[in-house]
Amino acid sequence: MNYQIIREFPHPMMEKGKRPVISIYVETNIKKPDRLENPIRFKNLVKEVQASLKDKEFKGFKELFLLFKEMEEDALFWEGATESLAILGDEEECIVYKLPVKTKSLAIVSDSYYIKPILRSFQSYGHYHVLGLNRDNFILYEADRYGIHEIPVAEQDSTMEGVLGTEKTAPHLSVASIGGDQAMYHGHGGAKDERKVDQEKFFRYVDAFILEQYSHTYKIPLILVGLDEHQGEFRKLSKNNYLIDHGIKIDGVSLDKKSFQEKIQSVMKELFKKELKERMDIFTEAHAKDLGSDDLVQIGRAIAEGRVATLYLEENTVHPGLFDPNQGTIVQGKIENPRVGDVYDDMAEVVLSRGGEVLILEKEEMPTQSDLAAVYRY
Known about the structure:
Structural class: alpha+beta
Helix content: 25-40%
């Protein structure tokens, strides 16, 4: 058995219906010497999983546990660790998410995968891609209210030279006879026009690359950073619906990294405040019209009836139990039981499967004092 590093959500493995399944989250350190603790944390979490399985179930996961041992001892696997790792597996396959946000270390065996931390990583709320663009190259970042991280992109995709190579526009010459065997060469368009053609080709490539490789997968807003002239040209040809109107008009590629990140964080704070207020207002208005609630029992019934448009959940909370998606009822349980998962996590899965939205928020960002809330469709 091998593992796959995954960038899309949800993954087909989550729909297989195999039971039980294993969800392991490792809060990782990315700096030496603390990052040497990462495989030890993972090893201890695997022990927790093994302790919660019955003998028969344990045998079924034999290959997965052998894979976990290989992962624990693989220095390269931990060398590339991000803020957190999500490792999900059943008896047949294993997938890994490298999450850009911190999440608490956790091991759960249940009838469905624990997905709230992954949801938080993939949700559009307070989470952006940042494209620093100039005429010759670009840099790409993933950013949220916790920080900003550069996404490595190969030069063949991030520079005009790498993208166009031998296809760069050559000066177009024509020949005119001036008598006898003599000829005069005339350039058409000049260097300025050639640069414009190449810039348009490069910008079209960048737009398609970001859209296909990142925006379609993560579905989060894209902030454009660049000089006014480059912003105008790029926006004219862009087909990326995730590109937001609010751009930052500086040359982000030439700016030193620290200054660039400070500029981005300043804009991000304003965007986040605006988003947070909008979310608060939506819930307040809905609640006043009996189209919203923070009552667990009411929300459970509304989810079963397919009426929940948006579910708000406080991050890093686990409520052991079982949720019946057909009746909307809840049975409390203990997390050590391999048939018991997180009630709120199960609710989130049902809301998503029925076309709703799920937001994972910090305690102070929740629209009520409760650790869950919902806005209804009707």
